[in-house]
Structures are given as structure tokens and as C-alpha cells.
TrEMBL record:
Protein name: XRE family transcriptional regulator
Listed transmembrane segments: none
Domain HTH cro/C1-type as annotated: residue spans: 24-83
UniProt xrefs under SUPFAM superfamilies: lambda repressor-like DNA-binding domains
Top-rank taxon: Bacteria
InterPro entries noted in UniProt: Cro/C1-type_HTH, Lambda_DNA-bd_dom_sf
A molecular-function term among this protein's GO annotations: DNA binding
Length: 114
């Protein structure tokens, strides 16, 4: 069974690895957070956060998870398993077309429609 973080990561992968840049910017704006605030909380430098926010650097699944937790979106009992980590790594290596095809398959498999 997949953890919620794997599903969130897959659904957010289109723009920045495991998190949409626009979503992150919106959350930061709502909370009056600077890139330094977020970076310090999750272990990224100002330069790294600047690159993330400008689309020049993708977040790893671990970095995205730390940001979600910092923003209060991850559940304490939602720990990634070894399988989750392997799947996230595999997803990070896929092309956009492969991700789209997998998303269609998973939605069909789960009985969901976009």
C-alpha cells in the first residue's frame, strides 16, 4: 500500500519533481514566509531555495516532504516505506509522457476520473 506522501508526490510531479512551484509560492505568500524561512526550516540554503522557486532546481522527494511537513500538510503517521522511496525514485526518472500514462493507468485502476 502506498503512503499518502507517495500519492501527493506523484500528483504534484509535473512542475518540480515532487512539488509544484506555484503551489509552494502561494503557500509561502499566504503565510508571509520568505525563501529563507522555508529554506532554514527544511535544510536548504537561500541559493537552493531561489533556484527551486525559479524553476532551476527540482526538489527531491525528501525535500518536498520536509516542506509539506513544515507547512503542516503531512500527517505524523504518514511515514514512507522502503517501497515508497523506490517508487518515488523510479517516478523521478520518468519522462512527462511516461508520468501521464502512469497517472491515467493508476486513475483507471483505482476507478478515478480526472
Amino acid at each position: 500500500m502506498f503512503s499518502k506522501s507517495v500519492i501527493l508526490c506523484f500528483s504534484d510531479m509535473e512542475n518540480n519533481g515532487c512539488m509544484k512551484v506555484e503551489w509552494l509560492k502561494s503557500e509561502m505568500s499566504k503565510r508571509n514566509l520568505t525563501q529563507r524561512d522555508v529554506g532554514e526550516a527544511v535544510g536548504l540554503s537561500d541559493a537552493q531555495m531561489s533556484k527551486v522557486l525559479n524553476g532551476l532546481r527540482k526538489l527531491s522527494s525528501e525535500e518536498a516532504d520536509r516542506i509539506r511537513r513544515f507547512l503542516g500538510y503531512a500527517l505524523p503517521d504518514d511515514e514512507a516505506t522502503e517501497l515508497d522511496i523506490r517508487l518515488l525514485h523510479a517516478l523521478s526518472q520518468m519522462t512527462d509522457a511516461e508520468k501521464s500514462a502512469l497517472e491515467v493507468f493508476l486513475q483507471s485502476f483505482a476507478g478515478l476520473k480526472k
